[in-house]
Structure of Tetratricopeptide repeat protein:
Amino acid sequence: MIDLALAALLALPLPPPDMAPPAREQVVEVPAELRARLHERVTAAGGSPGRRLERLVEFVFAEDGLALEYGNAATHTVADAWRTRQVNCLSFSLLFTALARETGLDAFVQEIDQVLVWYQHEGIVYNSSHVNVGIRIGTRRKTVDVSRNAVIARHQPEQISDDRALAHFYNNRGAELMAAGELAIARAHMEEAIALDPDYATSWNNFGVLRMRSGDAAGAEAAYRRALALDSDHAPALFNIVGLFRRGGDDANATRFQRQLEQAQLADPFHQFLLGNEYEGRGDYARAAGHYRRAIRLHGSEHRFHFALARTWLLMGERRRAGRALARARALGDDESRALYQAKIEILRRAR
């Protein structure tokens, strides 16, 4: 989930820290009052698994149900998500999975490893994977996603174990607590994440950031190297280890890992898309178009890449190219985006 590239510290919204991480069973425990409401609204009426799923979705989002609100909230346990009604993608997935299982549905958390959910604030760049919920009904698998339109995914979601899902929770909370300066409890959360899933590179990367924040450069290097042993193209760990070596005056290692980082970024369509956005914002439309085109070569089925290229061609006065890129974006988009792209195509046609 949250993957840190260190430059400074960011205060994310989070609940007051406890003295110790919650026990694993507490993270997904459904409060008695919520269980009673779930039974009344979803389970009691019976029906097919598909009908129960429909009622559960309605219960979770309806104003007279849980009325959950999605946003960049802190990572909550199931109980805290119910109490605050505020969820991020992980809190929602843990809550929905727990409730679905209470109704007898075969539910599990799914992970999408490569997504575009990068954001920056006051010096820290946050790179997040994405999770949602899978429901298995017979031979079919349905997906429930609180933020599908807010992410750009390269691959289909994959089912993960309950241990990996819990590791996401402790990793996220650890990152949030570290950002608030609560280093001791942050470490306890991150160590729990690593204990649950020692093969998750993101947890090791974040643990390295924590060690660096604590003044332990050797511990940070060891954690970054462990992350890279698990995933040699892990961009946040590469970024962090380059910074570590530069600050320490080790130019040879800094240069070596910088080359590795650049190679990883060249093969990352999301990084190319972000570079395109950056150059477009500077008014360098030719470079922006080059990065958008590379993003498309790497991941050509993403309609937003084609739309960005069309926008850049239009800013360069290349109306024919803009029209072709818009048509491709329209062909690949969902119903809502198709209507937007069609309207822009009509504007281009009238301007000829």
Observations:
- The beta strands are 2-5, 69-70, 86-87, 106-112, 118-121, 124-128, 130-137, 140-144, 158-159.
- The chain has 16 helices and nine strands.
- Residues 7-15, 118-126 have pLDDT under 50 and may be disordered.
- The domain at 269-351 is CATH 1.25.40.10 (Serine Threonine Protein Phosphatase 5, Tetratricopeptide repeat).
